[in-house]
Amino acid sequence: MTRLTIALLIPLVFLGLAALVAPSFIDWNAHKPRIAGVVARETGLNPDLAGNVSLTLLPRPALSLGDVTLSGDRGDSPLRALTAERLDIRLALLPLLTGAIEAEDIVLVRPAMTVDLGALASGRANDPLAGTAALRRLQLENASLRLIDEDRGIDIAIPEIDGRFDARDSRGPFDLKGRLMLADEPAAFQVSIGRIGDDGSAALGAQLLIERPATGSIRFNGRLGGRPGTGSGGGRSADGIALTGRLKAEGPDGWALLAALPPLGALAADSPNAPLALDLTADLGLEGGRLTLTGLSLRLGDMLAKGLVGVRFGQTPTVTASLELNRLDIDRELARWPDSDRAGSFAGRLRQASVPEAMHGSLSVAVGAINWRGQIVRQARFTAEAIHGRIAIGEASAFLPGDTELRADGTVENSAAGLAFDGKVRLRSSNIRGLAEWLGADSAAIPEDRLRQTQLAARLHIDHRAVALSKIDGIVDNSRLGGAATIALRSRPSFGLDIAIDRLNLDAYLAPASDAPATANMPRDAFLARLAGFDSSAALQIGALTWHGVNLQNFALDAYLYNGALALNQLSVGDLSGLRASAGGRVENLAGNPQFDIVFDGRTDSLARTARGLDLELPAHFKALREARVNGKVSGRADRLSIDADGEINAADFTLQGFLGDPFGHVTYDGSVAVHTRDLALLLGPYARGFAGDGDNAELKIDGHGDEKAARLRASATVNRLEASFDGDLLVSPAADSGLRGTLALRHPSLDTIPLPDGRMLPGPFGAAKLVAAVDAGSDGFRLDELVMTLGNSDAEGGLAIDWQGPRTTVAATLDARRLDLAPLVETLEREAGQEGGPAAGGGWPRSVIDFSSLLGFDGTLTLHAAIVDLGATALGDMAFDGALKAGRLEVRDWRAGLFDGAMTASGSLDVATSPARVAFDFRLDNGAVDALPPPYDGMMIGKARGDLHLRGESAGRSIFQLVRSLDGEARISGRDGVLRGLDLAGLLDRRGERPGIAEARALVAAALDGGETPFAHGGGAWRIERGVATTEPTVFSLDGARAILTGRVDLDRWETRSRLMIELDGPPGAPPFGVGLSGPLLRPDRDPILRPLATFIADGGFARN
């Protein structure tokens, strides 16, 4: 039995060995046509078998074909081409024994497949299930898939596909599943096709699962069909295949899911770090070359979009979309782009994008709320239509923050460098400051009533190079503007402006100085780095500009900043209260040590008018200044700028030359100013008369050098014969020590006039003048210490301090004089007070208005002591004066001096803050010597006496005439141990006992009133002054044997008197008084002797009866 078994096995072994060896002796390449037919039948594709063919029988029969190419030349196949490194066909054994080749399984090793999406979408692939009739199993190992659409420029590659296809029989069902790589992420896929019905359709289920990270899945459930001629159910329509069903995509990170799907991955290339959950559902339909997504619901994070999308495929595809979004978070989307290159990213996308020429479509999008820049944009709408590479935007509108409505329309077209938009934009706002703050501008410093009503319209052009506004026409508050603006879209910030404004009140937009934020000085490098960090061009024209209260007409700026260099083509003002000014030039190397080359000029026809326009108050004598001009140049590097300027003011020429070092850093300077005038009167007005005498020339020169902390100054001036000099230091910081310190000296050989406080000039000559003082001036005021001055015979020393830090300037002066020569001043005042030859002699005081305005500008105190005050005919001895000026009221608090060998005290006030000015005074003279009175008062009737005078009064007026005419007050005088001159009472009384005739008696009385003198022991009386008229109560002097009684009035307005001095004799009884009537000028009145009553009394024997 064993031998039989072995005998049977030996042939079987040899048979097996023959089966293994025999195929090696067969040339299978000779059977390629037959094998190609099998492959074509099984796949529906035309094979090209370029490699060798081999056959193995164990463990199961299989053909291996190397270097295989399969092409879809048949018009109903979307497969354009397939190449494989090797194709293995596993054969059915029994058919092979009969000589038939029947494939049970096909394995493609490293196949590369190309699918024509255009054929699939357009319906040229009439039967998508073609080629599955006999195929049971297909396995792919490390395959790659390429999806193309030449008409639309689509070319997508999907690598590393491993999968398996299984079919129960030729009518299905079919199952395809496997794994692939999408955007470097592993994914699993599965496609299930149900049994093919009679109409050629089948149920279709598809699923794609992205595995790492677990970002989501895409599922489809529906029906697929496509054999021609059916046209019912879910099968093929007359125009191509039909696909209907429900599409659903979901995942915890929607952006990551999109990133894994070509070609949608480009949309999510810069997806944000924070994931957004995705949930998409839609009814998908593909029929007759038309794809529709209806009932579309897309939720991405908190955004929900609903609507429909339709695509009609063909030679010219058409896309239609209508979507409504509840909200859109732009802030979140912008966070995807780095801040440093958002402009570049936007420009790059515009440059790379294009509108497909072979695509038509329409889009309508409405968004309820958009979160942008931290606020909400409401009711955004966008409608557009695309045709032949051109998008017509019918509406782009939204309500922006700040109650602002924005609308735009226009077209988007392809250009040589990418997409370009050209259209119109309109903006209307009732709170433009709210819009500005939303855009990042700080408007806190702008008053609340500004930046309100705004209307703007413009042409808008956007491409990858720039965003440009042209034909701007709008109104902002009360200003109308027009022009153009451009922002370049590149990594280096660039912008351009060409704006014209009819009027602009810039002050209305500036915060008060007290509210302005305090800012430190920006270092030069930081400031210049900012300028060098961007490019710009600016052309600005303003018809009427108000800035810091100054009105400028026809303001113009034309400048260009490029690559760290500034070209100032024009900076000009057409009219600033008569001033015309301009500047121009270049500044190179802003980022390093800038190189300046700037010229400037200015000219005015009326310097006084220009000063008023600049809110500068010139002294009255400067208001006649007319023409002025200045021309100059600034050149050199910033660390040492050369300044060279010259100009003219009326008849004065001036030059400025020097160097300014590092104006943005540690400032240094070294230069000089020189001024020369040919007509001093044009510069100094009436003050020039005080320096006249040797011509009309004046010279001023200032030399200085220093830095931002301190400077050494040396100044000299010559004004006709007046010489002035200063030598000292100017300290700038620290603030507590800042100021001007040095020595001031003034000299004049002979002053002819001196200015009075009311602007009048006091005529001289006064003699030589000299002043030397130590100056200490700061931001709060200045002091003159160690002050020594002489004027003619006057000399004084002391100090002067002026403080202008408070609300009003204050002046405090303390002077100690050995001698003050005021004789010229007294002489002038006496003439004006009505002395002979003066105006009052003709019956009137000066009526010219006295200008006390100089007393309104400051407050002050004066403490003065003088050993001798020379008043000409008399003098004050050991005078002490203490006065104060406050708010226009001058108070003479205490004034004491020796006068007329007596003691004088006085006090009073002058109030110039009222209109008219008011004067009040209280004057006392105690124990004064009448004989010390100066002429012409020394010729009065009273002599050799000592007396007291107390005078009080007040008046108001604008001139001396009004002050005298309105004087009210009282006076009291008393005298003792004196004589009445012009009265010889003793000679008259010696004739008592005689009875002369009437003629002799008359001569006797007349002789008593015409010479001699009569002693009196005491006397006095009171005067009442009303409205400039002094009326005396009886003023009585006690004589030896008689009384002298003075009655009458003095009209101070007219400087006239009408009075009577009567002598009443103590005896004989019944003797009538006699005397003299006085009328006419006060100091030289006409005399009218009253003789008759007493002469008659004597002739009748009145003296004889004594």
From TrEMBL:
Q: Domain AsmA: where?
A: 5-129, 884-1034
Task: Give any Gene Ontology cellular component.
Answer: plasma membrane
Say which domain of life the source belongs to.
Bacteria
Q: Which InterPro entries match?
A: AsmA (IPR007844), AsmA-related (IPR052894)
Pfam families hit by this protein: AsmA (PF05170)
Tell me, which GO biological process terms does this entry list? regulation of protein targeting to membrane
Record-given protein name: Putative assembly protein
- Organism, by scientific name, is Oceanibacterium hippocampi
Q: Please spell out the taxonomic lineage of the organism that makes this protein.
A: Bacteria, Pseudomonadati, Pseudomonadota, Alphaproteobacteria, Sneathiellales
